[in-house]
From TrEMBL:
Cited InterPro entries: Hexapep (IPR001451), Transf_Hexapept/Carb_Anhydrase (IPR050484), Trimer_LpxA-like_sf (IPR011004)
A molecular-function term among this protein's GO annotations: transferase activity
Highest taxon of source: Bacteria
Source organism: Hymenobacter lutimineralis
Protein name as annotated: Transferase hexapeptide repeat family protein
CDD domains linked: LbH_paaY_like
Keyword Transferase in record: yes
Gene3D superfamilies registered for this protein in UniProt: Hexapeptide repeat proteins (2.160.10.10)
Keywords assigned by UniProt, alphabetized: Transferase
Residues forming coiled coils: none
Length: 202
C-alpha cells in the first residue's frame, strides 16, 4: 500500500520489495534490494525517510519523525521485527534488534548492534561498532569481528529476499492436507548463540 501525501510520491527502486501489507506514505525514498515486510509503517508525511540500498525493515516496524526531520537508514541497515525508529539515523551495516525503540535525533554508528527490547533516548550518539542493550540503553562492549561477520551474513540473506519475493511470492489458496513429499527447508544460518557453540566445538 503506497500513498502520495501533500504532493510527495514515494520513490521505490524496481529491485526493492515492499510487501502489499506494508504501508509507505509520502516523502520516502527506498533504494536497491531493500526488503519491507508486512505490517511495516513507513510514514514520510511530516519529514523525509531515506532507506539506502540493501536495507531491510521487517514485519511491524514503524519509521516516523517529528515535523521537518529526516530518518535515514544507511546501506545494509537491518531493522528487526517490531522495532520503532523515530527521527533517527541508523549507520551502515548496523542492526536494530526486535522491538527496540530508537528515539529522535539519535545517531547509531556504523556496524553497531542494538539488542532486542532496547530503548535509546533522544539525542544519543552511539559510536561505531558498539554493542548496545537495555532500557535505558547501555553500551556494554565493542562488536567483535565474529559478531559483525554473523550480522553481515544475516543481512545478506535479506538482500536476496526481494528477488525471491518478486519471483515466487503470490496469493494462493491453502492446501487442506500436508503433502507427503513436502521438502524440508535448509537451515543455512544460525543464531549468534548457536554460532558461538559451533565455533567452540571446532
Amino acid at each position: 500500500m503506497i500513498y502520495a501525501f501533500n504532493g510527495y510520491i514515494p520513490v521505490v527502486h524496481e529491485t526493492a520489495f515492499v510487501h502489499p501489507q506494508a504501508t509507505v506514505t509520502g516523502n520516502v525514498i527506498i533504494g536497491r534490494q531493500v526488503y519491507i515486510g508486512p505490517g511495516a509503517a513507513i510514514r514520510g508525511d511530516w519529514g523525509q525517510i531515506i532507506i539506502e540500498d540493501n536495507c531491510n525493515v521487517q514485519e511491524n516496524c514503524t519509521l516516523h519523525m517529528f515535523p521537518g526531520t529526516t530518518v535515514r537508514l544507511r546501506e545494509m541497515a537491518h531493522i528487526g521485527h517490531g522495532a520503532i525508529i523515530h527521527g533517527a539515523t541508523i549507520g551502515r551495516n548496523a542492526l536494530i534488534g526486535m522491538n527496540a525503540v530508537v528515539m529522535d535525533r539519535v545517531e547509531i554508528g556504523d556496524e553497531s548492534i542494538v539488542g532486542a527490547l532496547s530503548f535509546i533516548r533522544a539525542d544519543e550518539v552511539i559510536p561505531p561498532r558498539s554493542l548496545v542493550v537495555g532500557n535505558p540503553h547501555k553500551i556494554i562492549r565493542q562488536v567483535s569481528d565474529d559478531m559483525l561477520a554473523w550480522k553481515t551474513e544475516g543481512t545478506q540473506i535479506y538482500m536476496r529476499l526481494p528477488g525471491e519475493c518478486h519471483a515466487t511470492l503470490q496469493p494462493c489458496e491453502p492446501l487442506r492436507e500436508l503433502p507427503a513429499d513436502r521438502p524440508a527447508q535448509a537451515a543455512g544460518y544460525a543464531t549468534w548463540a548457536e554460532s558461538k557453540n559451533q565455533a567452540a566445538a571446532e
